[in-house]
Amino acid sequence: MSYTQLTQGERYHIQYLSRHCTVTEIAKQLNRHKSTISREIRRHRTQGQQYSAEKAQRQSRTIKQRKRQPYKLDSQLIQHIDTLIRRKLSPEQVCAYLCKHHQITLHHSTIYRYLRQDKKQRQHVVATSQNMQQTLPQTLRQHMDQRQSTQPCRHRKPTRYRRPEIPVSAIGKPTPLSAKDRKAHY
């Protein structure tokens, strides 16, 4: 079963059936997983410990309305960002510039997201000083992720210990003549 949110009708069925059926029976009748039903009942109980379909539907609507808004790039701001990037500013510097001079707060990841999306949809052509054609994302500096660390990754296998190699010159040296004329070595 793929995930779909509960509908208002299903919530009213849960409210009616929860009075005299078990969670497993409700789940079978609605063709849903029993954990979905038990979670829904647990979340939306009223003070009298009864499930309320109205309360559940209201909360579902408010959560949908509060969901992530599309990022705040309009066409005028996009043009301004493009010109700043053509001037060889990084997205971090573009954000700082917009905040300082235009009081626009924008996160650099929003600009990177726009540039990735823009690269997929259409190619911006930037004329460079040598009259060469470059796409806009190519004019960017390389962005290093702030979370990179010097620690090795946990999922990477550790490298095996390798004995240091002995230089060939130390192994293949002939024994000196002074060592050969000794009679015994103690």
UniProtKB/TrEMBL annotation:
Query: Which GO-annotated molecular functions does the record name?
Result: transposase activity
Write the protein's name. Transposase, IS30 family
Please name the source species.
Answer: Neisseria meningitidis alpha275
Q: Which GO terms describe its biological process?
A: transposition
| Positions of the Transposase IS30-like HTH domain | 2-44
Q: Quote the InterPro entries the UniProt record gives.
A: Homeodomain-like_sf (IPR009057), IS30-like_HTH (IPR025246), Transposase-Integrase (IPR051917)
What's one Pfam family here? HTH_38
The UniProt entry's GO CC annotations, sorted and at most eight, read: cytosol
Q: SUPFAM superfamilies per the record?
A: Homeodomain-like (SSF46689)
List the residue ranges of the region (Disordered): 44-69, 142-186
The Polar residues compositionally biased stretches are 142-152
